[in-house]
Amino acid sequence: MQNILDILIDDFHERALPDLMLRHQSMVWVPRKTNVVIGMRRSGKTWFCYQQMLELLENGLEKERLLYLNFEDERLLPFSANDFQLILETYYRKFPAFKSKQCYLFLDEVQRIEGWDKFVRRVLDTEKLSVCVTGSSSKLLSTEIATSLRGRSLTTEIFPFSFREFLSFKKVILKSGQRFGSKTRATLQNLISQYIKIGGFPEIQIFDDELRRDVLRNYLDVVILRDVIDRHSIANTLALRFLMKHIMSAPATRFSVNKFYNSLRSQGVACTKNSLYDYMDHLTDTFLFYQVPIHSRSERARRVNPKKIYVIDPGLQEAMSLRRLGDRGALLENLVYMHFRRQGLAPEYYVTKKGAEVDFVLPAKDRGEHRLVQVCWDINDPDTQKREVSALLSAMDELGLKHGTIVTWLDEDVSDKRLEIVPAWKWLLAE
User: In the prediction, which pLDDT does 146 show?
Assistant: First the structure.
């Protein structure tokens, strides 16, 4: 193992960092705290780490004071907790003078190695090393962190490109406070049409349609196989894949385990309800899906009402060829949810006393009141307008709010002081 570490350290210091499209997230180095970078596979965690390295180099740090190891590199396998000490011994043997200088250790996909958190805790306490770890499991936030690093970690969640980052990749730079003339509007409307089809995974942005779908399907296969089946020793892979396909085909809808269980039974697929609950947790843990509860002060109501499910990226849905024309509103709602998620917000859905649904209610926080956001593809249809506006106004009355927002695909109207109707491309850039 020591020979392998020698080679990997030398290789990293020898090769240049790749050209980067800078992400809009940022990371702060705090003494004796670990930076934890989490997110779905292929969403850009490693390149975000390269971005942090580049910033350190631009501030005058020698590259040899950076150390990067990727635990998905087969040359590091098998790797045990005892081997972590070899990393330090090998590095400081090469650079003994750095023992007394501040250095930076990046451990990519480290959750694969049992005992990694105890090693990091020891490093923070005994060495002049700042540590950044990445992982494709949300358990880096809970179970695995809680044992040894509680209060000793700062978390950054990386997502596929936001719409603004998608524009940056396309070399479309918008200035602060910029007005949108007809030419700019047409450009942005065209680009958001591309975004809702292609999605935001960095690697696939330059691929043609066929290759892009193949690569995205491979992402899903890897998540299912490595992060769920292998990690949790799942035997009933058929039921798991049925569940994944069902959710991918019906984003932004309430999901009932009981109803899905009955659906599986009718198709002759054997599975217990408890297993389905476990599968949902495992899939959520990979950042593939997000579960959103109903807005209620009653904990029982939050527990018994089904959660709405959102998918991390629209490109995955397009790659699965599960889109239908009637799904456009749900796809737009999914975009809106992911925008909130990127901002670190935790929206819930709201059901009025008469049973009408409003897509998102956001906690008051520093604004002093809740926010209500309804999503509608086309507000011009009279029946749709009546239904969506009526639900939003009822929710505003019940929650004592003076303002509400309706996000549409292209429609815009600010004539009613109570309601702001705004197209998605503008809303995603303004929020």
Answer: 44
